[in-house]
Design goal:
This protein is mainly alpha-helical. The protein has 4 helices and 3 strands; from the N terminus they run ααααβββ. Strands 2-1-3 form a 3-stranded antiparallel β-sheet. The chain is globular. Helices cover 67% and strands 4% of the residues.
Length: 218
């Protein structure tokens, strides 16, 4: 009888020890996940702020360009502003999905009163500079096995690449007046990618969103 009792006690002890170990491992994993997502949340919050600022700047310059009868430039800048808006809204939703705090909006305090190619060059410069941050954050998200965030950041990078391309083309028209200015742009509401009127596919090549739902600027 004693042998049976000892055997049962040994089994119970093993089960309890195994349970304690499992709880400790689970808590350690949860702590590790919390730390990993915390870093990602900080990155997303920074990107949200930056993209919102970029959207406000593009909107500000678009209003000035329209007032100065630079309609093609205004159209492009309004499309860029919408593209940036889609990006920061994607970040906001990602923050909420990962359990982060609600991010707040900001107010643009820019005082520029005219639009010039120097303004467009400035937009290009800070977009190029910020892409290095996006690449670093995308690598972190990939290594953290957060493909959701990594995909959002890759979408941001691809959209920024297109924005830079169109801005450079817009600047080039000042030196080659014979070039025909593109008058229509499309923005994908899912991934923020930017297209001009030469785009003829029925789907966004990045996220497969139907082109029928694109935002149109003309």
């Amino acid at each position: 009888m004693r042998k049976i009792v000892k055997a049962v006690a040994a089994v119970v002890s093993i089960v309890i020890i195994a349970g304690v170990i499992a709880i400790l491992l689970r808590e350690r994993r949860a702590t590790s996940d919390d730390t990993r997502w915390q870093t990602t949340l900080l990155y997303l919050a920074e990107i949200y702020d930056t993209k919102m600022l970029h959207s406000l700047i593009a909107t500000h310059y678009a209003v000035i360009a329209e007032a100065e009868n630079q309609h093609p430039t205004a159209t492009l800048l309004r499309a860029i502003a919408k593209s940036e808006e889609v990006q920061y809204e994607n970040c906001r939703r990602a923050i909420a999905a990962l359990g982060g705090e609600e991010v707040s909006a900001m107010t643009d305090r820019r005082t520029a009163t005219t639009i010039s190619h120097n303004n467009l060059h400035a937009i290009i410069d800070y977009k190029i500079a910020y892409r290095s941050h996006l690449a670093r954050y995308a690598r972190h998200a990939t290594l953290s096995d957060n493909r959701y965030v990594a995909r959002l950041l890759l979408w941001c990078d691809e959209s920024d690449t297109r924005q830079i391309e169109f801005l450079r083309r817009q600047i080039a028209t000042a030196h080659h007046p014979q070039q025909i200015l593109i008058g229509r742009f499309y923005v994908c509401p899912t991934c923020s990618n930017l297209f001009d009127e030469e785009f003829h596919s029925h789907l966004c090549p990045l996220c497969m969103t139907s082109a029928e739902s694109f935002f149109v600027f003309e």
